[in-house]
Amino acid sequence: MSEEKIQGVAEYFGCNVFNEETMRARLPKNVFKSLMKTRKMGVPLDPDVAEVVASAMKDWAVEKGATHYTHWFQPMTGVTAEKHDSFISPVGDGKVIMEFSGKELVKGEPDASSFPSGGLRATFEARGYTAWDPTSDAFIKDGSLYIPTAFCSYTGEVLDKKTPLLRSMEAVSEQAVRVLRLFGNTTATRVTTTVGPEQEYFLVDKKLYDQRKDLIFTGRTLFGAKSPKGQELEDHYFGNIKTRVAEYMKELDTELWKLGILAKTKHNEVAPAQHELAPIFSTSNIAADHNQLTMELMKKIALKHGLVCLLHEKPFAGVNGSGKHNNWSISTNDGQNLLDPGDTPAENAQFLTFLCAIIKGVHEYAPLLRIAASSAGNDHRLGANEAPPAIVSMFIGDELQKVIEAIENDGTVESGAGTKFQLGVGILPNFIKDTTDRNRTSPFAFTGNKFEFRMLGSADSISCTNIMLNTIVAKELSEFADILEKADDFDKALKDLLKKTIKEHKAVIFNGNGYSAEWVEEAARRGLPNLVSTVDCVPLFAADENVAIFEQFKVYTRSEIESRTEVLLENYGKVINIEALTMIDMARKDIIPAGLEFAKFLAESVVTKNSAGIDSSVEKKLADKVSGLVASIDSATAVLEDKVLGAKNTEGAEATAKYFRNEVFSAMQSLRAVADELETVCPEKVWPFPTYGDLLFRV
Ligand code: ADP
Ligand code: MG
């Protein structure tokens, strides 16, 4: 790329964002300062300040051609929501001016009745509130000023994914600062969790996509025989990017950069037609907002290139599905990454304290992390030898493993040039950052200065994962701080605490192959939960021990958790229901007629050939096979229809979800098996949909 081009990006980067630089340039000094206090230290926003900010924001947006504003929020649907209001305000004489008040900036009142609430809000209680999140920048998109907001019901219950995320960040900050003080840090006043989500996706040709109802209605293929070639040659991963895809990626990067999103890495993934985009990390709530925008733009821009972007976790059977790696760390506002082992013994000891808190948290609250990655789509991946198993464990690498063992056993560990260290709190080994040792099969892997949570599905919001992580870690840090603050001999107390923690919670550490069958058995021996599907884990969300920590840190109330459980389970049932109905439709209207037509052609051919005295045994054999398969498809469809109807007899979200999993989903698999077999014996001309080969290799 030429020097000019690079400068070009630097100039337009963030041009559609009302960011700190723009605020500094456009706001009076005192207003700017006050807003920064709110952003960086959580000081409540002064209404007068909001008034000035609103006016400056509006002027800036109007100059950039915006006519509307919208409170942009993240309801429990997992996608974002927006309602647009124009800035116009009549001034008589049939004229208008563009206006936007502090009140309008800070608070909106959308009708909330059609968003999922899991029974939290009676339908007559239609009002909801959106409240500005001043820590996430407003931006312009499609002629509107977008204001990132939190969303709650009229009575104050949380209805979105942003509010609990912000609360969990607060919780972990408060507890981490307590621990830092014990290590003599007097300067850090806040700690933020940081996230860099790596996003996987598929691209398929729009013309082919349009011929498949399953892709249109469900985002994944419900039928489809394997193509002769899949991902076995491993020639796609990091492979040369096709021109059409490269053009798409280029436009995507440009649009993301304009929105201030730090898109950094792009490459081809393992499966054919699969790709990945990773941004540079930012604070969790901004990363969550940016990931939502990234997914939205991925889809929109694909259409401009005659492509469709599939974010589903498992668009194709037989090749890898898509995940999202949530790289997570904690840093202080005085610039220290708390998951960086550091160079000095003191830094090492502090690092080990945070590490042990994380180990304990992941062990005690594994089901919460599993829940964060649960959806009908992601059930296809977890435990299917392409993504981590459904068992939550941690990888820490060999070097850290040795350190942990030495702490547990009062042993020594070799460091660098063969020097042995007796592990005491003041004397920890100067370990080298472990960046080379990678374990791709672990759900939660330490990667040198951060943890990578790998269970998340590609279509999921990253909010839930980070709400869980932050709350769990806040809980353990608060326990540690309670113990250590009371200690007379800090060094001894710390050493005892770490030793005890490792002894009791090392079962969650596993550095081996997470895809192996042996691990499933070993994990069972260790007592680690193996929550295979969404319906197995989601009901645990409302278990007493989980409710207790969310209430302790004011992230969720019990009723908010119960409502979320309800929403997740209902959503699961709805997704499977739509998939089942789509399969029935495709089987009845497309697949069976195609099979019958082919069978008829063969039968006619048999008659013609027989009357001409020509051998028709091949046609006869094939006609029998096709007829047999069509009959099987017909009866499997009938079974599925029955099962879908049977869902009406279940009561409650959990029972319904379990019914869909155990009865409907398995009937879908049986139908697919026979239909896919028919596809393999039908000529391509006869088959009603584009094949896997077309979809995966014709971009
Ligand atoms: P990998 O070897 O897994 O590709 P990278 O260093 O490229 O590792 O990072 C992958 C992702 O992790 C990127 O999105 C990156 O921004 C993010 N990341 C790096 N450091 C941190 C951190 N301290 N906190 C959160 N995410 C981080
Ligand atoms: Mg990756």
Give an account of the 3D structure:
It is a single chain. Helix 3 packs across helix 4 (47-63), helix 6 runs parallel beside helix 14 (463-486) and helix 12 runs antiparallel to helix 14 (463-486). The protein is globular, with a radius of gyration of 28 Å. 48% of the residues are buried. It is an alpha+beta fold and 699 residues long. The structure holds adenosine-5'-diphosphate (ADP) and magnesium ion (MG). Magnesium ion binds at residues 198, 276, 325. Adenosine-5'-diphosphate (ADP) binds at residues 194-196, 198, 278-281, 327-329, 337, 447, 449-450.
The outline comes out as globular
Mean pLDDT: 91
Which distinct ligands sit in these coordinates? adenosine-5'-diphosphate, magnesium ion
- Computed CA radius of gyration, to the nearest angstrom: 28 Å
Overall number of strands:
20
Low-confidence stretches: 417-427
Residue share in helices?
Answer: 40-55%
The secondary structure category is alpha+beta
The termini sit apart by 25 Å
The amount of beta strand, in percent, is: 5-15%
Report on the biggest sheet. Answer: 9 strands, mixed
**Number of helical runs?**
22
